[in-house]
Amino acid sequence: MVRPSSLSLAEKCELAPVLSAEFPETNANIERGHLVDGQVSRQLLGGAPATDPDALAVLAWLHEEKMYGVGHTSYVQEAIALVDPDTGETLTEGTGDIAHYDGRSMVTIVDLKKREQYAAGRLKDPDDNMQLHAYGLGWALRLGAKAYRLALLLFGDGKVEAIWSTVCFTETPDRLGAKSWVPYLDRIRKVKEGHHALVASGARPLPTAGDHCAQCYARAHCPSWMFPEPLPSAADSALVPLSKPGGITKDNAGDLLLYVMAVEEQAKRAREVLQSWARANGGAIAVGDRKWAPIVMNGRKSGPTVDELEELGLGHLVKQGKPYESWRIGKR
User: Fold this and answer.
1) Are the beta carbons of 158 and 57 closer than 8 angstroms?
2) At what angle do helices 130-143 and 182-201 cross, to 10 degrees?
3) Fewer CB within 10 Å: N-end or C-end of the chain?
4) Three-state DSSP class for 221?
5) How far apart are CA 159 and CA 139, in angstroms?
6) 120 vs 123, 209, 263, 266, 296, CA distance in Å?
7) Are residue 169 and residue 50 in the same domain, yes or no?
8) Same domain, 72 and 186
9) To 10 degrees, the CA torsion angle through 24, 26, 30, 32?
């Protein structure tokens, strides 16, 4: 069975859920998330009060959003199975952070994540986050709720930020701001059917590389991200002509360029493999007495586009940059 956390990747790559099971996710962000989740859950369930600044910020947000306290029904770290309403089969099963039910019609799913995970592009937004949809569908069908909505609650530095789904989801939308949940249920059905067929065949699935690889923590173990052969030594390298006077000629310049471009692409992939390995092994790589590790950068400031400024009659504010070279392969 494909777990909710692997559904989005499983849609793109059949090998991804297999690798996720063989090489469980573990890195500093996930461990930090477990700590905050644990403190929040214990307090919500009547245990020890939270002391971590991030956990306290999460609890304050939940209180402001009226998701716990007297008169509220919240399910904290409770396993939920998504049962197909047509066949009675379990499509997927997992444990979400918080599911709140208003007692009438709406389920709210809240998933706690470290801010850096979102900044690094490892999390899908709620509207297309199949893990959250699995929880939303599971709880809505179990409780008989008419709709669900989804939220990623990002924490860090004692603060939280909620990323909400842009709409709520229901079986038969009858109002503005609602969207059908049926397509998401069908997508999960399709993942289950495909995974079941693979298991029955006994074949190991093949990897499918693409943009989704950025969200896969098991990438360092994927054949698509491993070099099939050892990198060439300097003596054997096709780049040797570059180090010799007169080594570049009209006859070999084109081949050298294509080789350099291939090396650049492999170097880019190698860096991403090292990043995946680092995330799964403490979050950093030692380099002498220093370390190579990610840091969260402030987002770039944005403003009106050139076209928008010109439409507003402010074209005089637009400055033409100086010409610059851009090398590319084109027609001769």
Assistant:
1) yes
2) 110
3) C
4) helix
5) 28
6) 8, 18, 25, 21, 8
7) yes
8) yes
9) 140
Selection from 172, 183, 181 nearest residue 148 by Cα: 181
Residues near 167 by Cβ (< 8 Å), separated by ≥ 6? 127, 149, 177, 178, 179
State the pLDDT at residue 4: 96
DSSP letter at 212 equals G
Query: Residue 289 is encoded by which pair of tokens?
Result: 């007495």
**pTM of this structure:** 0.71
Q: Is residue 267 part of a domain?
A: yes
pLDDT 10s digits, 125-164: 999 999 999 999 999 999 999 999 999 999 999 999 999 9
How does pLDDT run across 246-277, given as a tens digit for each residue? 888 988 888 888 777 777 777 887 888 888 88
Q: Using CA atoms, how far apart are residues 236 and 233, in angstroms rounded to an integer? A: 5
Q: What SS3 class is residue 35?
A: helix
In a domain, 220, yes or no: no
Query: Minimal CA–CA distance to 224: which of 25, 14, 30?
Result: 14
What local confidence, expressed as pLDDT, does residue 231 receive?
Answer: 54
Same domain, 305 and 194: no
Is residue 212, in this structure, part of any structural domain at all?
Answer: no
Checking if the pLDDT of 29 tops 80, the result is no
* Number of neighbours of residue 56 by Cβ within 10 angstroms: 19
39 pLDDT band (50/70/90 cuts)? very high
What pLDDT sits at residue 222?
84
User: What pLDDT is recorded for position 97?
Assistant: 94
Please give the tally of structural domains in the chain.
2
